[in-house]
Automatic annotation (TrEMBL), chains A, B:
Top-rank taxon, per record: Bacteria
Annotation: DNA-binding region: 41-60
Entry-linked Pfam families: TetR_C_13 (PF16925), TetR_N (PF00440)
Protein name from the UniProt record: TetR family transcriptional regulator
Stretches that traverse the bilayer: none
Assigned keywords, A-Z: DNA-binding, Transcription, Transcription regulation
Length: 223, 223
Protein backbone atom coordinates (compact mmCIF):
# COMPACT_ATOMS: atom_id res chain seq x y z
CA UNK A 1 0.00 0.00 0.00
CA UNK A 2 1.33 3.42 -0.92
CA UNK A 3 1.73 6.25 1.57
CA UNK A 4 -1.20 8.04 -0.05
CA UNK A 5 -3.51 5.04 0.21
CA UNK A 6 -2.53 4.58 3.84
CA UNK A 7 -3.08 8.27 4.54
CA UNK A 8 -6.49 8.20 2.91
CA UNK A 9 -7.58 5.14 4.84
CA UNK A 10 -6.36 6.70 8.07
CA UNK A 11 -8.28 9.90 7.44
CA UNK A 12 -11.34 7.80 6.69
CA UNK A 13 -13.25 10.59 4.95
CA UNK A 14 -15.40 8.92 2.28
CA UNK A 15 -13.84 6.40 -0.06
CA UNK A 16 -10.05 6.22 -0.02
CA UNK A 17 -8.78 7.92 -3.18
CA UNK A 18 -6.10 5.80 -4.79
CA UNK A 19 -3.08 7.65 -6.04
CA UNK A 20 -2.30 6.54 -9.60
CA UNK A 21 1.29 7.55 -10.27
CA UNK A 22 1.02 7.27 -14.05
CA UNK A 23 -2.18 9.29 -14.30
CA UNK A 24 -0.71 11.96 -12.02
CA UNK A 25 2.46 12.00 -14.14
CA UNK A 26 0.45 12.40 -17.35
CA UNK A 27 -1.37 15.38 -15.83
CA UNK A 28 1.88 16.90 -14.58
CA UNK A 29 3.49 16.31 -17.97
CA UNK A 30 0.63 18.16 -19.65
CA UNK A 31 0.98 21.11 -17.25
CA UNK A 32 4.73 21.40 -17.81
CA UNK A 33 4.24 20.93 -21.57
CA UNK A 34 1.69 23.76 -21.80
CA UNK A 35 3.24 26.23 -19.36
CA UNK A 36 6.92 25.37 -19.09
CA UNK A 37 8.91 24.43 -16.02
CA UNK A 38 9.26 27.79 -14.35
CA UNK A 39 5.72 29.04 -14.87
CA UNK A 40 4.29 25.85 -13.32
CA UNK A 41 4.02 25.91 -9.53
CA UNK A 42 3.54 23.02 -7.13
CA UNK A 43 0.07 24.49 -6.45
CA UNK A 44 -0.72 24.17 -10.20
CA UNK A 45 0.53 20.59 -10.12
CA UNK A 46 -1.59 19.73 -7.08
CA UNK A 47 -4.61 21.18 -8.93
CA UNK A 48 -3.85 19.39 -12.17
CA UNK A 49 -3.06 15.98 -10.72
CA UNK A 50 -5.84 16.00 -8.15
CA UNK A 51 -3.30 14.57 -5.70
CA UNK A 52 -2.54 16.05 -2.33
CA UNK A 53 0.64 18.10 -1.96
CA UNK A 54 2.20 15.72 0.62
CA UNK A 55 1.60 12.82 -1.78
CA UNK A 56 3.42 14.62 -4.60
CA UNK A 57 6.30 15.50 -2.29
CA UNK A 58 6.47 11.93 -0.97
CA UNK A 59 6.49 10.46 -4.48
CA UNK A 60 8.72 12.95 -6.30
CA UNK A 61 10.59 14.97 -3.69
CA UNK A 62 9.96 18.39 -5.20
CA UNK A 63 8.93 20.17 -8.40
CA UNK A 64 12.20 19.28 -10.06
CA UNK A 65 11.77 15.60 -9.16
CA UNK A 66 8.26 15.62 -10.58
CA UNK A 67 9.55 17.32 -13.72
CA UNK A 68 12.30 14.71 -14.12
CA UNK A 69 9.72 11.94 -13.82
CA UNK A 70 7.52 13.75 -16.38
CA UNK A 71 10.45 13.91 -18.81
CA UNK A 72 11.02 10.16 -18.44
CA UNK A 73 7.30 9.57 -18.95
CA UNK A 74 7.38 11.65 -22.16
CA UNK A 75 10.45 9.87 -23.45
CA UNK A 76 8.93 6.43 -22.87
CA UNK A 77 5.54 7.42 -24.32
CA UNK A 78 6.65 9.42 -27.38
CA UNK A 79 10.37 9.65 -28.06
CA UNK A 80 10.98 5.90 -27.96
CA UNK A 81 8.15 5.33 -30.45
CA UNK A 82 9.94 7.67 -32.84
CA UNK A 83 13.17 5.73 -32.42
CA UNK A 84 11.32 2.48 -33.14
CA UNK A 85 10.07 3.96 -36.44
CA UNK A 86 13.65 4.58 -37.51
CA UNK A 87 14.86 1.11 -36.67
CA UNK A 88 11.89 -0.91 -37.95
CA UNK A 89 13.39 -3.71 -40.07
CA UNK A 90 12.81 -3.90 -43.81
CA UNK A 91 12.63 -0.16 -44.53
CA UNK A 92 14.94 1.80 -46.78
CA UNK A 93 16.63 4.83 -45.21
CA UNK A 94 14.30 7.12 -47.17
CA UNK A 95 11.18 5.29 -45.98
CA UNK A 96 12.40 5.29 -42.38
CA UNK A 97 13.20 9.02 -42.36
CA UNK A 98 9.91 9.97 -44.00
CA UNK A 99 7.95 7.75 -41.60
CA UNK A 100 9.78 9.28 -38.60
CA UNK A 101 9.09 12.87 -39.71
CA UNK A 102 5.46 12.21 -40.69
CA UNK A 103 4.86 10.65 -37.25
CA UNK A 104 6.42 13.73 -35.61
CA UNK A 105 4.15 15.99 -37.71
CA UNK A 106 1.15 14.00 -36.46
CA UNK A 107 2.23 13.96 -32.79
CA UNK A 108 3.18 17.67 -32.75
CA UNK A 109 -0.33 18.60 -33.96
CA UNK A 110 -2.31 15.92 -32.08
CA UNK A 111 -5.28 17.84 -30.69
CA UNK A 112 -5.47 15.64 -27.58
CA UNK A 113 -2.00 16.81 -26.53
CA UNK A 114 -0.29 20.19 -26.13
CA UNK A 115 1.33 21.28 -29.42
CA UNK A 116 4.91 20.59 -30.40
CA UNK A 117 7.59 18.50 -28.72
CA UNK A 118 7.56 18.65 -24.92
CA UNK A 119 11.36 18.68 -24.63
CA UNK A 120 11.81 21.40 -27.24
CA UNK A 121 8.99 23.62 -25.94
CA UNK A 122 10.08 23.35 -22.35
CA UNK A 123 13.76 23.99 -22.85
CA UNK A 124 13.16 27.10 -24.98
CA UNK A 125 12.10 29.20 -22.01
CA UNK A 126 14.32 27.97 -19.20
CA UNK A 127 16.24 30.54 -17.28
CA UNK A 128 19.75 30.27 -15.92
CA UNK A 129 18.26 29.71 -12.49
CA UNK A 130 17.06 26.27 -13.57
CA UNK A 131 20.48 25.04 -14.65
CA UNK A 132 19.94 21.45 -13.49
CA UNK A 133 16.69 21.18 -15.38
CA UNK A 134 18.25 22.85 -18.44
CA UNK A 135 21.06 20.28 -18.33
CA UNK A 136 18.56 17.43 -18.16
CA UNK A 137 16.71 18.79 -21.18
CA UNK A 138 19.92 19.39 -23.12
CA UNK A 139 20.83 15.75 -22.57
CA UNK A 140 17.43 14.68 -23.85
CA UNK A 141 17.68 17.02 -26.82
CA UNK A 142 21.05 15.65 -27.75
CA UNK A 143 19.60 12.18 -27.35
CA UNK A 144 17.29 12.97 -30.27
CA UNK A 145 20.15 14.16 -32.45
CA UNK A 146 22.22 11.18 -31.31
CA UNK A 147 19.41 8.80 -32.26
CA UNK A 148 19.35 10.31 -35.74
CA UNK A 149 23.14 10.20 -36.03
CA UNK A 150 23.35 6.56 -34.93
CA UNK A 151 20.60 5.66 -37.38
CA UNK A 152 22.49 7.39 -40.22
CA UNK A 153 25.76 5.73 -39.20
CA UNK A 154 24.18 2.28 -39.33
CA UNK A 155 22.68 3.01 -42.74
CA UNK A 156 25.99 4.36 -44.01
CA UNK A 157 27.79 1.22 -42.85
CA UNK A 158 25.13 -0.79 -44.73
CA UNK A 159 25.92 1.15 -47.91
CA UNK A 160 22.70 3.20 -48.01
CA UNK A 161 24.56 6.51 -47.72
CA UNK A 162 27.65 7.62 -49.66
CA UNK A 163 30.81 7.16 -47.62
CA UNK A 164 31.64 10.87 -47.94
CA UNK A 165 28.32 11.99 -46.44
CA UNK A 166 28.89 14.12 -43.36
CA UNK A 167 26.73 12.17 -40.90
CA UNK A 168 27.10 14.69 -38.05
CA UNK A 169 26.04 17.59 -40.28
CA UNK A 170 23.10 15.64 -41.71
CA UNK A 171 21.91 14.59 -38.22
CA UNK A 172 22.14 18.20 -37.03
CA UNK A 173 20.19 19.40 -40.04
CA UNK A 174 17.45 16.81 -39.47
CA UNK A 175 17.26 17.68 -35.76
CA UNK A 176 17.02 21.37 -36.71
CA UNK A 177 14.08 20.63 -39.03
CA UNK A 178 12.35 18.61 -36.32
CA UNK A 179 12.84 21.45 -33.84
CA UNK A 180 11.52 24.00 -36.34
CA UNK A 181 8.44 21.82 -36.85
CA UNK A 182 7.86 21.82 -33.09
CA UNK A 183 8.05 25.62 -33.01
CA UNK A 184 5.64 25.86 -35.95
CA UNK A 185 3.18 23.51 -34.22
CA UNK A 186 3.33 25.61 -31.07
CA UNK A 187 2.69 28.60 -33.25
CA UNK A 188 -0.55 27.20 -34.67
CA UNK A 189 0.65 25.22 -37.70
CA UNK A 190 -1.71 22.42 -38.76
CA UNK A 191 -0.85 18.79 -39.43
CA UNK A 192 -1.03 19.63 -43.15
CA UNK A 193 1.42 22.55 -42.70
CA UNK A 194 3.95 20.25 -41.05
CA UNK A 195 3.41 17.58 -43.69
CA UNK A 196 4.24 20.20 -46.33
CA UNK A 197 7.55 20.84 -44.55
CA UNK A 198 8.26 17.09 -44.51
CA UNK A 199 7.35 16.86 -48.21
CA UNK A 200 9.73 19.71 -49.02
CA UNK A 201 12.49 17.99 -47.07
CA UNK A 202 11.84 14.67 -48.78
CA UNK A 203 12.00 16.42 -52.18
CA UNK A 204 15.58 17.49 -51.48
CA UNK A 205 16.44 14.30 -49.56
CA UNK A 206 18.35 12.70 -52.49
CA UNK A 207 20.68 15.75 -52.45
CA UNK A 208 20.68 16.06 -48.68
CA UNK A 209 22.23 12.63 -48.20
CA UNK A 210 25.12 13.71 -50.45
CA UNK A 211 26.02 16.54 -48.07
CA UNK A 212 29.79 16.48 -48.28
CA UNK A 213 32.39 16.30 -45.59
CA UNK A 214 34.09 19.56 -46.43
CA UNK A 215 31.94 22.64 -46.01
CA UNK A 216 34.96 24.88 -46.35
CA UNK A 217 34.61 24.32 -50.08
CA UNK A 218 31.43 26.37 -49.88
CA UNK A 219 32.72 29.89 -49.54
CA UNK A 220 30.67 31.79 -46.98
CA UNK A 221 29.46 35.03 -48.47
CA UNK A 222 30.77 38.19 -46.96
CA UNK A 223 27.88 39.67 -45.05
CA UNK B 1 10.18 66.37 -18.70
CA UNK B 2 9.01 62.81 -18.15
CA UNK B 3 6.83 61.74 -15.26
CA UNK B 4 9.82 59.94 -13.76
CA UNK B 5 12.12 62.96 -13.94
CA UNK B 6 9.42 65.13 -12.37
CA UNK B 7 8.86 62.55 -9.63
CA UNK B 8 12.59 62.34 -8.92
CA UNK B 9 12.97 66.11 -8.69
CA UNK B 10 9.96 66.32 -6.44
CA UNK B 11 11.37 63.74 -4.08
CA UNK B 12 14.61 65.68 -4.06
CA UNK B 13 16.76 62.83 -2.73
CA UNK B 14 20.22 63.24 -4.27
CA UNK B 15 20.58 63.76 -8.01
CA UNK B 16 17.47 63.18 -10.07
CA UNK B 17 17.86 59.81 -11.84
CA UNK B 18 16.85 60.19 -15.45
CA UNK B 19 14.69 57.41 -16.82
CA UNK B 20 16.04 56.27 -20.16
CA UNK B 21 13.20 54.46 -21.89
CA UNK B 22 15.41 52.69 -24.44
CA UNK B 23 17.91 51.44 -21.87
CA UNK B 24 15.08 50.22 -19.64
CA UNK B 25 13.48 48.51 -22.64
CA UNK B 26 16.74 46.79 -23.55
CA UNK B 27 17.03 45.46 -19.99
CA UNK B 28 13.39 44.34 -19.98
CA UNK B 29 13.86 42.70 -23.39
CA UNK B 30 16.84 40.75 -22.06
CA UNK B 31 14.84 39.56 -19.02
CA UNK B 32 11.91 38.38 -21.15
CA UNK B 33 14.30 36.84 -23.67
CA UNK B 34 16.12 34.81 -21.01
CA UNK B 35 13.19 33.82 -18.81
CA UNK B 36 10.08 34.06 -20.97
CA UNK B 37 6.99 36.16 -20.44
CA UNK B 38 5.30 34.23 -17.67
CA UNK B 39 8.35 33.52 -15.54
CA UNK B 40 9.29 37.23 -15.51
CA UNK B 41 7.57 39.27 -12.82
CA UNK B 42 7.21 43.05 -12.53
CA UNK B 43 9.55 42.78 -9.53
CA UNK B 44 12.18 41.15 -11.79
CA UNK B 45 11.68 43.94 -14.32
CA UNK B 46 12.05 46.63 -11.67
CA UNK B 47 15.31 44.96 -10.59
CA UNK B 48 16.60 44.55 -14.12
CA UNK B 49 15.75 48.01 -15.41
CA UNK B 50 16.76 49.84 -12.25
CA UNK B 51 13.62 51.92 -12.67
CA UNK B 52 10.98 52.37 -10.01
CA UNK B 53 7.80 50.34 -10.26
CA UNK B 54 5.54 53.45 -10.61
CA UNK B 55 7.73 54.64 -13.49
CA UNK B 56 7.35 51.36 -15.33
CA UNK B 57 3.59 51.36 -14.75
CA UNK B 58 3.35 55.00 -15.92
CA UNK B 59 5.38 54.30 -19.07
CA UNK B 60 4.03 50.90 -20.06
CA UNK B 61 0.76 50.34 -18.17
CA UNK B 62 1.54 46.81 -17.00
CA UNK B 63 3.77 43.79 -17.65
CA UNK B 64 1.98 43.07 -20.92
CA UNK B 65 2.49 46.66 -22.08
CA UNK B 66 6.17 46.46 -21.25
CA UNK B 67 6.41 43.16 -23.08
CA UNK B 68 4.72 44.61 -26.17
CA UNK B 69 7.19 47.50 -26.15
CA UNK B 70 10.06 45.01 -25.76
CA UNK B 71 8.81 43.07 -28.79
CA UNK B 72 8.74 46.25 -30.88
CA UNK B 73 12.23 47.10 -29.65
CA UNK B 74 13.47 43.64 -30.69
CA UNK B 75 11.83 43.90 -34.09
CA UNK B 76 13.38 47.30 -34.80
CA UNK B 77 16.82 46.27 -33.50
CA UNK B 78 17.12 42.80 -35.02
CA UNK B 79 14.28 41.60 -37.25
CA UNK B 80 14.33 44.64 -39.53
CA UNK B 81 18.06 44.25 -40.06
CA UNK B 82 17.40 40.72 -41.30
CA UNK B 83 14.77 42.00 -43.71
CA UNK B 84 17.22 44.60 -45.01
CA UNK B 85 19.72 41.83 -45.79
CA UNK B 86 17.12 40.14 -47.99
CA UNK B 87 16.25 43.26 -49.93
CA UNK B 88 19.74 44.72 -50.37
CA UNK B 89 20.03 45.63 -54.06
CA UNK B 90 22.43 43.87 -56.37
CA UNK B 91 22.34 40.40 -54.76
CA UNK B 92 21.19 37.20 -56.38
CA UNK B 93 18.46 35.27 -54.54
CA UNK B 94 21.06 32.71 -53.43
CA UNK B 95 23.40 35.37 -52.04
CA UNK B 96 20.55 37.12 -50.25
CA UNK B 97 19.24 33.92 -48.62
CA UNK B 98 22.71 32.81 -47.54
CA UNK B 99 23.51 36.26 -46.12
CA UNK B 100 20.19 36.32 -44.22
CA UNK B 101 20.74 32.87 -42.67
CA UNK B 102 24.42 33.49 -41.83
CA UNK B 103 23.44 36.72 -40.07
CA UNK B 104 20.78 34.80 -38.10
CA UNK B 105 23.40 32.19 -37.12
CA UNK B 106 25.63 35.00 -35.83
CA UNK B 107 22.86 36.84 -33.95
CA UNK B 108 21.43 33.65 -32.39
CA UNK B 109 24.85 32.81 -30.92
CA UNK B 110 26.03 36.36 -30.11
CA UNK B 111 27.50 36.03 -26.63
CA UNK B 112 26.45 39.55 -25.62
CA UNK B 113 22.78 38.57 -26.07
CA UNK B 114 20.58 35.73 -24.82
CA UNK B 115 20.71 32.78 -27.26
CA UNK B 116 18.30 32.23 -30.12
CA UNK B 117 15.52 34.40 -31.48
CA UNK B 118 13.60 36.34 -28.84
CA UNK B 119 10.22 35.86 -30.56
CA UNK B 120 10.73 32.13 -31.07
CA UNK B 121 12.10 31.46 -27.57
CA UNK B 122 9.38 33.44 -25.84
CA UNK B 123 6.43 32.01 -27.70
CA UNK B 124 7.52 28.42 -27.13
CA UNK B 125 6.56 28.48 -23.46
CA UNK B 126 3.46 30.61 -23.37
CA UNK B 127 0.45 29.21 -21.66
CA UNK B 128 -3.16 29.56 -22.70
CA UNK B 129 -3.56 32.14 -19.95
CA UNK B 130 -1.44 34.60 -21.91
CA UNK B 131 -3.60 34.44 -25.02
CA UNK B 132 -3.15 38.14 -25.93
CA UNK B 133 0.61 37.88 -25.69
CA UNK B 134 0.58 34.61 -27.63
CA UNK B 135 -1.45 36.29 -30.39
CA UNK B 136 1.04 39.17 -30.55
CA UNK B 137 3.94 36.73 -30.91
CA UNK B 138 2.09 34.65 -33.50
CA UNK B 139 1.63 37.81 -35.58
CA UNK B 140 5.33 38.58 -35.26
CA UNK B 141 6.23 35.00 -36.12
CA UNK B 142 4.09 35.08 -39.20
CA UNK B 143 5.68 38.40 -40.10
CA UNK B 144 9.00 36.55 -40.43
CA UNK B 145 7.50 33.90 -42.70
CA UNK B 146 5.66 36.65 -44.61
CA UNK B 147 8.90 38.56 -45.11
CA UNK B 148 10.48 35.44 -46.58
CA UNK B 149 7.43 34.75 -48.77
CA UNK B 150 7.29 38.31 -50.11
CA UNK B 151 11.01 38.17 -50.84
CA UNK B 152 10.56 34.91 -52.76
CA UNK B 153 7.55 36.29 -54.65
CA UNK B 154 9.52 39.32 -55.81
CA UNK B 155 12.41 37.12 -56.92
CA UNK B 156 10.02 34.76 -58.73
CA UNK B 157 8.44 37.70 -60.57
CA UNK B 158 11.97 38.77 -61.57
CA UNK B 159 12.58 35.33 -63.05
CA UNK B 160 15.02 34.11 -60.36
CA UNK B 161 12.76 31.24 -59.33
CA UNK B 162 10.98 28.76 -61.59
CA UNK B 163 7.31 29.71 -62.09
CA UNK B 164 6.16 26.35 -60.72
CA UNK B 165 8.03 26.79 -57.41
CA UNK B 166 5.64 26.62 -54.46
CA UNK B 167 6.54 29.90 -52.78
CA UNK B 168 4.37 29.30 -49.71
CA UNK B 169 5.92 25.88 -49.08
CA UNK B 170 9.44 27.20 -49.60
CA UNK B 171 8.85 30.15 -47.23
CA UNK B 172 7.46 27.79 -44.59
CA UNK B 173 10.45 25.49 -44.97
CA UNK B 174 12.90 28.38 -44.61
CA UNK B 175 11.04 29.69 -41.54
CA UNK B 176 11.12 26.18 -40.05
CA UNK B 177 14.90 26.02 -40.53
CA UNK B 178 15.34 29.44 -38.93
CA UNK B 179 13.20 28.34 -35.97
CA UNK B 180 15.15 25.11 -35.60
CA UNK B 181 18.37 27.14 -35.57
CA UNK B 182 16.96 29.25 -32.76
CA UNK B 183 16.15 26.15 -30.72
CA UNK B 184 19.63 24.76 -31.35
CA UNK B 185 21.22 28.04 -30.23
CA UNK B 186 19.14 27.99 -27.05
CA UNK B 187 20.31 24.46 -26.56
CA UNK B 188 23.99 25.36 -26.64
CA UNK B 189 24.84 25.16 -30.35
CA UNK B 190 27.82 27.28 -31.38
CA UNK B 191 28.04 29.77 -34.22
CA UNK B 192 29.92 27.10 -36.17
CA UNK B 193 27.16 24.54 -35.53
CA UNK B 194 24.55 26.91 -36.95
CA UNK B 195 26.79 27.78 -39.89
CA UNK B 196 26.98 24.06 -40.67
CA UNK B 197 23.18 23.94 -40.81
CA UNK B 198 23.18 26.93 -43.17
CA UNK B 199 25.86 25.28 -45.32
CA UNK B 200 23.78 22.10 -45.52
CA UNK B 201 20.74 24.11 -46.55
CA UNK B 202 22.71 26.02 -49.16
CA UNK B 203 24.01 22.72 -50.56
CA UNK B 204 20.45 21.62 -51.33
CA UNK B 205 19.27 25.15 -52.23
CA UNK B 206 19.41 24.57 -56.02
CA UNK B 207 16.93 21.69 -55.51
CA UNK B 208 14.96 23.47 -52.82
CA UNK B 209 13.96 26.31 -55.15
CA UNK B 210 12.49 23.75 -57.54
CA UNK B 211 10.06 22.54 -54.87
CA UNK B 212 6.98 21.84 -56.95
CA UNK B 213 3.44 23.01 -56.55
CA UNK B 214 1.90 19.58 -56.22
CA UNK B 215 2.99 17.63 -53.17
CA UNK B 216 0.24 15.10 -53.67
CA UNK B 217 2.53 13.58 -56.30
CA UNK B 218 4.76 12.51 -53.44
CA UNK B 219 2.92 9.58 -51.95
CA UNK B 220 3.04 9.74 -48.17
CA UNK B 221 4.29 6.47 -46.78
CA UNK B 222 1.92 4.48 -44.73
CA UNK B 223 3.16 4.79 -41.19
Amino acid sequence: MSIEQAACLKKGRGRPKQFDRDIALDKALEMFWRHGYEATSMADLVDATGAKAPTLYAEFGNKEGLFRAAVERYVSKFAEKGKALLTRPGSTITEAVERFFRAAAATFTDKSLPSGCFIICTSAALSASSEDVAELLRTRHHLQENTLREFLQVRQSQGELPTQTNIAALAKYLACTLQGMSVQARDGATHEDLDTIVSTMMTVWPELIRVGADFTLIAALEA
